[in-house]
Every structure is written in C-alpha cells, then in structure tokens.
Write a structure and sequence with these properties.
Blueprint (H helix, E strand, L loop, with lengths): L3 H6 L1 H13 L19 E5 L2 E7 L5 H17 L5 E6 L4 H10 L2 E4 L4 E5 L2 E5 L21 H9 L9 H8 L3 H13 L3 E3 L6 E3 L2 H11 L6 E6 L5 H14 L4 E4 H9 L7 E5 L5 H6 L3 E2 L6 E5 L10 E3 L2 E3 L2 H7 L7 H20 L3 H10 L4 H13 L11 E2 L1
Parallel strand pairs: 2-3, 3-4, 11-13
Antiparallel strand pairs: 1-2, 4-5, 5-6, 7-8, 9-12, 9-13, 10-11, 14-15, 14-16
C-alpha cells in the first residue's frame, strides 16, 4: 500500500491530473497563497470553466473531514472569486461522504473515488479500494477496549455525573494511564475538550463522535455462532430464548434488529441476536434447541470482543437489551432492514437528547411537524412528551440490570 505521507506530497499534482482527465480540459496552472498567513487554503486550481478551491487532509477520519469542511466554508466566505470547494483525502469513508453531501462540498480521494458537483459538471466515481490501509492493527480510540471511554461519554452526555480522567478510568474499569492516552488522542482529534481547572471531560460534537465510531466499528470483529431455532417469528424467538437463558442464569443482552424492534416497533424481523458473557458449549446449544447452520439462520449468538457492550444494558418487556448506542452500532453488521432501523433509532436518540435539554418540549413537536416529519415520528415525539423524558433508554427507560 502507498504510504499516506508520500501520497500527500504528490496530492496536488495527482488532484490536478485527475480533474483534468475527467473534465476533459487542461489545467490552467496552480494558484497558491490566496489568503494571507499560513492558515489559508492549499491552492486554487482553474480547469475549464471552473476554479476548484482545494483543501487536502492527510487523514480520512471523520474529524479531519469535518475540519476540512469547516475550513473550506471559512475560506469561501473570504474569497471574492467564484469557486468550487473541493476536499481531498486519502480515502473517503461513508460517514465523511455523508458530511460532505450535507455541507454541499465536493470531494475526491487519492484512491480514485470522487463526488464532484458544479454548474454543468457532475463526477461520481465509487468502488475503488482504499490504497492507504495501514499494516498491522492500528491503535484507535474506537478499538474494542478503548471504546469504553467513547461509549461512556456518549451515553452520559449532559448528565450530572462527574467525568474527569480519574472518574472515567474507574467507571470503565481501565487503568488511569491507558485512559489518559485515549483522552489525549480524543482531544487531539477534536472530539472532546477538558476543563483546564477541574479536568471535566466534555464531548464537543455528539454526532461527530458517534459518526466517527460508527465508521470504524465492525460487528464481525466479535465471535459469532450462527444457528437456527424453530419459532414462528423473530419476536417469538427473541422472547422465548431470553426466558430460557434467564432460567439457566446465562447472562445475555439482545442487540441488532430485535433490540431496535423493542424500542420502536419499527419493522418485523427474522434474525435475533444475543450477546453472551460466556461462549456456549454444545450442551447448552442442545438444551436450547439451537443447531448450527450458515444457511437459513435466524439466530446469532455473539461473544463480544470486550465486555463494554453490556454497559447500560437494561431489562424491558421481559428481555435484556444493550443500550441504544450499542444497538445502533451493531445494526451496521445486520441484514434485512437494518439500515432503516438504524436511521430511525438515530432519529429517536436525537429527539430524546433535544427533549432532555429543552425547556419547552411542545415547541420541538411543532418544529418537527413544520418540517414534515412522518406520522410515526410525530407519535414517538408525542409519547415521549406525555411520558416524560425518561421514556427513551438513553434517558433511562429501562431499569438498570
């Protein structure tokens, strides 16, 4: 694979050649030093009828993409010439591409993918593999054990719980030195800030941090047993197996489509997914009536790569479920209508956060009505208001287990 540092050195020339090729016209030369000082855009690139304002980032993570978008927005306000903002990264992920689309910023990556839009111009290239994957297992704040910090911060956002470095180490069951390194990396990436006086840790942008975690999360990093149980529906399977696990005192928590259904009744499901504290032996599988199969499976039993997935698990409707943030992450690795279920869960989480922070919740209801929210979402908002902000699990719908 190509080293990122080497690629960035030639990114200007590669960007120029790439755009000239797809537009079908030669470059008119690279213009630099558009704004005074060292903080200006990397360069302006006139090709054909368009002038591209280029910002290059050496990292493709969501935080870097977001900073690039913010910088391009700032430069655009200061420049007087017509231009097309264009962000260049080594490899654009799904979350970064989504943020660019929301900000109406074009992008291309040095792996050969792009989405560029301008008057009279539309370039869309996708499917090119990432040429900048790092060898080995890179250190990440979103790795299995490290992500306990991120999970805690997102789940306890805007609470009265003190969140200093020492508190987070204790609450997540990690040593303070390891916690310190994670927090330093999160701070350097622009995800958190720390109070210089009391040391309290605060998430700067909830959605940015969750998007970044989601982009790196891999459900298949857990160990999964695929199997089949004879039941009429996914809901009946989930309830029945949960009861039998309780009877045998096997600690579990459901996730995925079944857990999302418990929260919103968004869609019927076939596949039930259970996290287990301990991997089941053949005797337990037999007792539960589970037979292993990779074809036609309707059950996944999952041994997590870290016990953090059980944080804030709760019991509701006779079934223990992981917390909504964990459900949202896990849906990324599920079939059926998982993507739609994840979008609905993300919407409900946002509503719950708004209602918790807002003094006049009925104003939020009217605002969403004005925006054309679906009847289903209006019913959800109304129910949350009528039942208080404790209705939704991020705000303690479930009893603690």
């Amino acid at each position: 694979m190509v080293a990122i540092e080497e690629a960035i050195e030639t990114a200007v020339l590669r960007t120029e050649a790439w755009l000239a090729h797809y537009i079908g016209e030669p470059s008119r030369g690279i213009v630099s030093g558009l704004l005074p000082g060292p903080e200006g855009p990397d360069f302006l690139l006139p090709i054909g009828k368009h002038q591209f304002l280029i910002e290059i980032k050496s990292s493709s993570d969501v935080a870097s993409v977001s900073r690039g978008i913010e910088q391009l927005s700032l430069y655009s306000r200061e420049l007087t010439v017509d231009h097309v903002p264009l962000l260049v990264v080594p490899f654009m992920g799904e979350a970064g591409a989504k943020r660019c689309a929301e900000a109406d910023v074009s992008w291309l990556d040095l792996s050969g993918n792009a989405r560029v839009a301008a008057p009279g111009l539309a370039i869309h290239v996708e499917g090119k593999p990432n040429q900048f994957k790092r060898r080995g297992r890179p250190s990440s704040v979103f790795a299995a054990k490290s992500s306990r910090i991120v999970r805690w911060l997102l789940m306890h956002e805007n609470t009265e719980i003190t969140q200093t470095q020492r508190d987070l180490a204790r609450l997540t069951g990690m040593d303070e030195g390891f916690t310190s390194r994670i927090l330093r990396n999160l701070e350097q990436s622009g995800y958190i800030s720390r109070d210089p006086k009391g040391g309290r840790v605060r998430v700067i942008d909830y959605d940015l941090l969750l998007d970044a975690w989601h982009a790196e999360y891999r459900f298949d990093a857990h160990r999964i047993i695929r199997g089949h149980v004879t039941e009429k529906s996914g809901a009946e399977l989930q309830k029945s197996l949960a009861r039998r696990l309780d009877e045998r005192q096997v600690e579990y928590a459901v996730t995925g489509l079944g857990a999302a259904w418990l929260l919103s009744r968004f869609a019927a499901f076939r596949l039930a997914t259970f996290y287990l504290r301990q991997f089941p032996d053949d005797q337990l599988l037999d007792d539960l009536g589970i037979w292993r199969t990779d074809q036609g499976e309707n059950l996944w039993l999952v041994l997590p790569n870290d016990e953090g997935v059980f944080h804030n698990a709760g019991r509701g409707q006779e079934v223990v479920s992981v917390a909504p943030i964990q459900i949202y992450l896990d849906l990324k690795g599920h079939p059926e209508r998982a993507a739609e279920a994840a979008a609905q869960l993300r919407f409900q989480t946002r509503i719950a956060r708004e209602l918790r922070a807002y003094k006049h919740p009925k104003d939020i209801l009217e605002r969403y009505r004005d925006r054309g929210a679906t009847e289903e979402n209006i019913r959800f908002i109304t129910e949350v208001i009528e039942n208080g902000v404790q209705y939704f699990p991020p705000i303690k719908k479930f009893e603690d287990v």
